[in-house]
Amino acid sequence: MDQRKSSVECYERGLVLKRIGMCHEAIENFKKAALNPEYAGRAHVHIALCLKADGNQEEAVVAFRKAFASPSLSSEERRHILYHIGQTLESLGRYAESLEAYGKLRNEDPEFRDVTQKIKRLCDGGRRTLSESETSWQSWMDEARTLTPTVLALLEQTGQWLGRQAETLKGHRWFEKGNSASPDRGGQDPYSIAMAKRRNQSAGRDRMVNTRRHARVPVRLRSQFSADGRTVGGEGELRDLSPWGCRMTSTVAVPIGADLKCRIFPKGAGSPFVIDGATVRWISREEFGLAFTKMHPGVQQQIEQLCSAQAA
């Protein structure tokens, strides 16, 4: 009983340390928790994720394989681990081993994420053929090259016509200073009216932007995310950011409504911004939107400062 309690404490302490970015300390606690067979599988998964976060891909593969060998995990968890093994091996350039992992996964679940596409891409050696639309575009370009002399002649004729029209317009009363072109418009010429309208439209857009409490600013920052208690997790690039949410691009699929923990790595900062709670609001191809639901006030202030600096 005492050993199980100790394993639980080490595992939960490791989760907390992992969330705040203290990966080395988290790994030490997960190793202690892994001494209990009941926690060995999940502990090794988190060890692997910590190692990946620190850039130790080779060691992460070893940890993932230890997790996969653990009998305490469910079939669904083992499939996620196989996917992580394949991804990590692929990033290391160990394509044969990556194919082996993806192959095992496809045998168990052919519909799992994009495993079939990954296998096809690796088997093709990263090469691809032109799509039908690309082929059509290439044919159009080849045909356009044969029309170049005709097109040039047409453009020349058009330019001559525009030149004649410009000479005619120079003498038009609309372009005479101080001339009243239309009495019902207060003596303003059409050009002045159009420019005034454009300024009003621009001012209206500015007012709309200013009424937004927190406009998202474009950024390109490295980020990591994970779901508590699951093997789902990975890295992505944070694109749009506000103190209340962001847009993330990643090859890792996440479901709508998932609650994630995020770490944002601002350029030039020593420590990442830790978002304790972020809910997936929408998903698209290799990107998803997050709404920040839980974070330390100090972190929120840092994000506000970052957004202000980017918007300046």
Task: Summarize the helices and strands and which ones pair or pack.
Layout: H1 2-19, H2 23-33, H3 37-53, H4 57-69, H5 75-91, H6 95-108, H7 115-123, H8 132-146, H9 148-170, H10 190-211, E1 217-226, E2 233-242, E3 245-249, E4 259-265, E5 273-284, E6 287-295, H11 297-311
Helix pairs in contact: 1-2, 1-3, 2-3, 3-4, 4-5, 5-6, 6-7
Fold and architecture overview:
- There is one protein chain.
- Among the domains are: 2-123, Alpha Horseshoe (Serine Threonine Protein Phosphatase 5, Tetratricopeptide repeat); 217-311, Thrombin, subunit H (Beta Barrel), CATH 2.40.10.220.
- It is built from 11 helices and 6 strands.
- A 6-stranded antiparallel β-barrel has the order 1-2-3-6-5-4.
- Helices cover 56% and strands 17% of the residues.
- The protein is globular, with a radius of gyration of 30 Å.
- It has helices spanning 2-19, 23-33, 37-53, 57-69, 75-91, 95-108, 115-123, 132-146, 148-170, 190-211, 297-311, and strands at 217-226, 233-242, 245-249, 259-265, 273-284, 287-295.
- The two termini are 58 Å apart.
- The chain is an alpha+beta fold.
- The longest helix has 23 residues, at 148-170.
- Residues 127-148, 177-185 and 201-213 have low confidence and may be disordered.
Quick tags:
17% strand, six-stranded antiparallel β-barrel, 312 residues, Serine Threonine Protein Phosphatase 5, Tetratricopeptide repeat, 11 helices, Thrombin, subunit H, alpha+beta
What's the CATH class of one domain, please? Mainly Alpha
Large-scale geometry: globular
Number of strands: 6
Would you identify the CATH architecture of one domain? Alpha Horseshoe
Biggest sheet statistics:
6 strands, antiparallel, barrel
Poorly predicted spans: 127-148, 177-185, 201-213
Radius of gyration, in angstroms, nearest whole number: 30 Å
- The number of helical runs is 11
Q: Could you report the average pLDDT, rounded to the nearest whole number?
A: 75
CATH topology of one domain: Serine Threonine Protein Phosphatase 5, Tetratricopeptide repeat
Strand ordering within the main sheet? 1-2-3-6-5-4
Task: Tell me the structural class.
Answer: alpha+beta
- Encode the helix/strand succession as letters: HHHHHHHHHHEEEEEEH
| Span between termini | 58 Å
User: What amount of the residues lies in strands?
Assistant: 15-25%
Helix content: 55-70%
Question: What oligomerization state is this entry in?
Answer: single chain
Question: CATH H level of one domain: which superfamily?
Answer: Tetratricopeptide repeat domain
